[in-house]
Amino acid sequence: MTRVAVEPVDAPTRELEEPPPGRAELTMRFAVLVVGTVAFLAAIYALGGWAWDLVAVSVFAIIMLHEAGHFVTAKWSGMKATEFFVGFGPRLWSVRRGETEYGVKALPLGGYVKILGMTSLEELDASDEPRSFVNQSTGKRVLVASAGSIVHLLLAFLLAIGALWFIGQPTSTRIQIQGLETSPTGKTPAELAGLRLGDVIVSINNVAITGTAKSEATLESIIHSSPGKPVVLVVDRGGHDVLIRATPEPIDQGSKVVRLGILLGSTHVYARPSPLGAVTGGTALVWHVVTGTVAALGHAFSPGGLSSLAHQVASPRAAAQAQAHGQGTVSAVGAAEYLADAARAGSYPFIVMLILLNISLGVLNMLPMLPLDGGHVAIALYEGGRSRRGRRYRADVTKLMPVAYTFMAFLLVFVVAKMYLDIAHGVQNPFG
What we know:
This protein has helices at about 25-50, 50-75, 140-165, 190-195, 215-225, 275-300, 305-315, 315-325, 330-345, 345-365, 375-385, 400-425, and strands at about 80-95, 100-115, 170-180, 200-205, 205-210, 230-235, 240-245, 250, 260, 260-270. The chain is an alpha+beta fold. The chain folds into three domains: about 25-165, no CATH class; about 170-270, PDZ domain (Pdz3 Domain, Roll), CATH 2.30.42.10; about 275-425, no CATH class. The strands form three sheets. Strands 3, 4, 5, 6, 7 and 10 form a six-stranded antiparallel beta sheet that branches. Strands 1-2 form a two-stranded antiparallel ribbon. Strands 8-9 form a two-stranded antiparallel sheet. Helix 1 crosses helix 2 (about 50-75) and helix 2 (about 50-75) crosses helix 9 (about 330-345).
């Protein structure tokens, strides 16, 4: 006799889970992801060139490393992290490993980690309560909440050490040939003499040439006062001194001004310290940037800074003057412009800008206001201070929400105002 098990009518209805996508669908989604990424980078390249692609990839990597900091420390602390996604919006591709779903979403504007119970307002299953964020010790909560900013600080420190160790620290400036002119009448004196793009001028007629404006004026004066007379140049080419004899001649038709046909610019001379010097120098550089960033943000959010921002928004003339002198903080738009300009200027300026970006993000995220990471740190410390052995105190987060919403509205207005100024008036290129 066959027995039929009948489920009671009052038993809870089981939620039907969506079946996981098959291999063919996953392959198609992955192909769409690759094609979309290539198309996205190609569009950025078409709009701004390789420097903007480098900026996009670097910023995206920094954001994901920030989220990875939260994720790794949450896992290490025993918290339950259910999602780790790159991007926002519709899901393109994902895979589940254990209790966590890893994947990519359509809008490449960052990423996120979902840790259960970040505030006491979140409703959780009873089985998830012991592993929720709010039910962990104060130390673990502070570590996980501040992990993103810690990652930014570590990245800045490693970048500073790497820049000093592998590139060196700029010690002085030199005059470099950054362009070669052409002549409608034939080859220029520079071409005939064998001068090359990138040559650094060490001396002319035994007169040392440094990177000062006075030294550059001396160089040009000697050239202009030597019509038909060879000048003796010593140039640094790839670390080796090369002797060049060149005869200044008129290049432009009808002109009596003699030139060599070179376009000059300044370049830094780098000195590589010892490994210990790179560590101490990197520490000093990071500390200098941290203190400067804190001071800059403090001024930006001060009454005087906010008054100045409002005046710039209302007065195009004041905004143009401020932007021309590089005064004040910039928005994400201005920061991206700085990064692109730094990338074109060279490896060292670009790395320094990445250090500045990491520290700025780290400091800003630690402001003690929700929804920033610093807000979660402040609540954890407050609750830890109010708790007693055997009795855990829980703050009423609902009372903080009006303050959090006000702060978010203020921050939105502040960011939009900064973006408007950066777009309408541009940012001054500090790298020449």
